[in-house]
Specification:
- With 161 residues, this protein is an alpha+beta fold.
- The chain has a domain of 82 residues: DNA Binding (I), subunit A.
- The protein has 3 helices and 6 strands; from the N terminus they run ββαββααββ.
- Strand 5 and strand 6 form a beta hairpin.
- The longest helix is centred in the N-terminal third of the chain and has 7 residues.
Length: 161
């Protein structure tokens, strides 16, 4: 805002005081031009692998928080530590597979491991609906009616009907 690249739409967060002036803390801004963001490759960490695989064992399909990292082609056989060679596996499946490839262990992968999209920063969707002043700028949530099975649009939490 100070450089003219954004303008305040909603004020509601208070102010910041400096020695010479006071700046408002906006809760909603609008960019006045396109801001190019640099491409960020997602880091290969245990948590990122589990998030990519939705906390599901890629061999048996069991959803659990107690997962291990498995190298599809074991490192002992020349496999690399890359997105395309690591998957989430439950302890039982990882032990069963051991230092073999899935084919050698007669196990099948549920999905082919790939590098996740580099979309920058992950913010849980529910976070957006936790701020009342943002509601009029967000799309409506869709819920499935238990009686009819049809999708109905409803405003996000905190929005008056």
């Amino acid at each position: 805002m100070f450089c003219g690249k954004a303008e305040m739409i909603e004020d509601g967060r208070g102010v910041v005081h400096t020695i010479q002036t006071t700046f408002p803390l906006p809760s909603v801004i609008r960019l006045t031009g396109h801001v190019r963001r640099p491409f960020h490759q997602r880091r290969l960490t245990r948590l990122e692998v589990f998030i990519r695989d939705r906390f599901t064992c890629q061999y048996c399909g069991k959803e659990t928080k107690e997962l291990t990292i498995d190298h599809v082609k074991p490192r002992s056989q020349g496999g690399e530590h890359t997105w395309e060679n690591v998957v989430s596996a439950c302890k039982l499946c990882n032990r069963k597979k051991g230092g073999r490839t899935p084919e050698q262990a007669s196990m099948k992968l549920l999905s082919t491991p790939r590098a996740p999209r580099a979309y920058g920063y992950h913010v849980p969707f529910q976070y957006f609906y936790s701020h009342e002043e943002w509601q009029k700028y967000l799309p409506q949530q869709q819920k499935v009616s238990s009686a009819t099975g049809l999708r109905i649009s409803v405003p996000g939490p905190g929005v008056a009907l």
